[in-house]
What does this fold into?
Amino acid sequence: MRPLNLAALVERVHAELLAQRGRGRVADYIPALATVDPMRFGIAAAGLDGRLHCAGDAHQRFSIQSISKLFALILALQMEGRALWRRVGREPSGTAFNSLVQLEHEAGVPRNPFINAGALVVVDVLCARHAVPQNAVQELLGRLIDSPPPRHDAAVARSEREHAHRNAAMAHLMKSFGNLRCPVDQVLDAYCRQCAIEMSCTELARAALLLAGHGLHPSGGERLLPGSLAKRLNALLLTCGTYDAAGDFAFRVGLPAKSGVGGGIVAVLPGECALCVWSPGLDEAGNSLLGTLALERFTTLSGRSVF
Ligand code: GLN
It folds into this structure.
């Protein structure tokens, strides 16, 4: 197989799509997110050889939102092991990330850990162990990128918390089914702070190398996760990481990925590299519109995907 020229690919994808900046709709249901400049566009690719390639606004930090769900899940799985799967499923939801409808039908057990309800269960697991659960997520992220833990934006967390009526409804419903152990308010506070963590494309691409490298620390060497767990996390990302658009995303891009309503998407090419794109305009499913197009161009131009 031809080696990937990540530097050239990143430059080309960025240059090709630059004219389309501003497409999509910036998330405004969290008021503090609505103020982000829709023209921002960054791409970063981190190779397993340790080299980092980037273009555009790749060093600008943004609100990682649901991308945090991946790293919270890693911590919860390390604590609970497979017992976690009794409280949250592993199937695509086929409904929006903030939908309530399945929860009632399925007795308060969310379809997967990447929709909001599933992430709330994951945060509940972390709350039971950590006084300040988002600190544990921030520490993991800092460890992955060999730097101080990334911070969360308290104003964004507060803004989401004040408007978290749907997430509160889910949390209360799950509590009524006995699938939430900690107080609902504690879980919601921790969830909103976790979503408000800020990182750049370069930092997130580096952190996601954990999954490209089959569970080894992004700098190589130390094993942080069993290879089988890294494989399974990639499978979950592929099937559930982009919500009810996961099928279309797999069709178009063909990489395990996790998106957030801040406009970031991390994607994993196992054995080779991890990518992060950021453009705040979202499509109907809540995934970055330009970010998805960029990843689609990346796999088309490189001829690489998991398929
Ligand atoms: N904090 C957001 C929410 O709960 C995260 C959603 C997302 O990024 N898809 O709605």
Q: What stands out?
A: The mean pLDDT is 96. The chain has twelve helices and seven strands.
